[in-house]
User: What shape does this take?
Amino acid sequence: MSDSIDRLFNLHQAALGARAYRSQVLASNIANADTPGYQARDIDYKTALTQALGSSNPATPAQSSAMVRTSTRHMGAGGAQAGALESAPLIYRTVTQASIDNNTVDVNVERAQFADNAMRYEASLTFINSKIKAMLAAMQS
Assistant: This one.
């Protein structure tokens, strides 16, 4: 039973993790809008999602480099997806407007990307919620 639930939510867990990581990168861009020489970055969502899904397979080397817990009281490092997403390659944004201080952050572009990413994150949560409701309805009938 547990395996089927894991399979049901594995894609959505990885998608939410990739969206959350992308939000962090975009927020970092917005926070550094006035930092001289800062280069705006983003992630390739498709690549990050593929990496996160691939790392959930026990045969992949991503889990072999996981942190070792020396005590049962130690907290985990956030799972395989967290490690895979942190190693997702960051790509630099194409410069749309030249800046004197070599900063490539366009705040309007970053805000639009952040809003789009947040909307897609919410859509994923809504989809997960509907799956959970369907499972509950199946259990109750």
User: Anything to note?
Assistant: The radius of gyration is 19 Å. The CA atoms of residues 76 and 103 lie 37 Å apart.
